[in-house]
Every structure is written in C-alpha cells, then in structure tokens.
Amino acid sequence: MLNDPLFIIAAIACLTVVAILILGIGTFGKGGEGSAKRSNKLMRYRIYAQAVAVALILLFVFMRRMGG
C-alpha cells in the first residue's frame, strides 16, 4: 500500500488538511479583527482541501476494490 502513488497523494492531502486546520485555529486564538479574517480564510481553504482529500480517498478505495 505504501508503494501506491495514489495512497501517498491521499495521505499528503490529509496532512495538508491537518496543517491548514492547525494554522487556522492558531490564528483564531491570537484574537483581533485581522486574525479573525485570516482564520476565516484559512478555514475556507481547509474545506476545499478536505473535499479534495475525501475525493482522493474515495478514488483510492474504488481503485483498490476494482483490482487496480
């Protein structure tokens, strides 16, 4: 499984989601209006990255079940 490039890409996508989440929470914790706007923007990016990660995971599972 670790030799499968699609698995590695999906894992990197998941780690990217976690990194964006941590940055967004950290920015939100600082306080201030500028931080709130930046945190809000980061959370939107997290949603997009999470959608990509879920799609990659589903593609990986589909490919594995089909024997690919």
UniProtKB/TrEMBL annotation:
Residues 1-68 form the HIG1 domain. Keywords: Membrane, Plasmid, Transmembrane, Transmembrane helix. Pfam families: HIG_1_N. The chain crosses the membrane at residues 6-26, 47-63. It comes from the Bacteria. This is Twin transmembrane helix small protein. It comes from Pseudorhodobacter turbinis. The lineage of its organism: Bacteria, Pseudomonadati, Pseudomonadota, Alphaproteobacteria, Rhodobacterales.
